[in-house]
Amino acid sequence: MHEHIFIENIINQVPDNKKVKSVEIEIGVLVGIEPDHLKEHLEEHTGWRVFCKVVNSKVECRCGYKGEARILQRLHDLVIYDCPGCEGEPEVLQGKDIKITKVVYK
Which domain holds residue 31? Predict the structure, then answer.
C-alpha cells in the first residue's frame, strides 16, 4: 500500500509528532494519491485531525503552453498527464508535491 510511504514521510517531517492535534496539508493534483484517501489513512494512523487543500497543476512546455496539465488517467498510485497544447511532456512547476502548511499542537 503506497499510502503508507506518504504517511510515514509526513509523520517524520513533523517535529514532536506525538503532541500534534491537527495538520494542514496541500496536495497537488498530480500526486498519485487522492486527498480524501490520504486524509483518512493519516487520521487513522496518527489520531491527528487532517485538513487537505488541493493544489492545481501548473506546467510549462517547450511548445510555449503555460497553464494546467491535462490529466489523461488517474491510476491507484500514478497520474498520467501531458501538455494540452502539443501532447508533449511539460515541466511541472506546481501540483506534484505534498506540503505540510500548518501544525497545531495539543
Answer: 3-105
pLDDT the model gives residue 23? 97
| Sheet with strand 49-55: strands edge to edge | 49-55, 20-28, 98-105
Average pLDDT rounded to a whole number, residues 41-65: 96
Locus of grid cell 496539465: 69
Question: Domain containing 100 — which CATH number?
Answer: 3.30.2320
106 and 21 Cβ atoms separated by less than 8 Å: yes
Question: Is the distance from CB of 105 to CB of 16 less than 8 angstroms?
Answer: yes
Contact 52, 14 (CB under 8 A): no
Q: Rounded to the nearest 5 degrees, what angle is found at the Cα of 18, between the Cα atoms of 17 and 24? A: 45
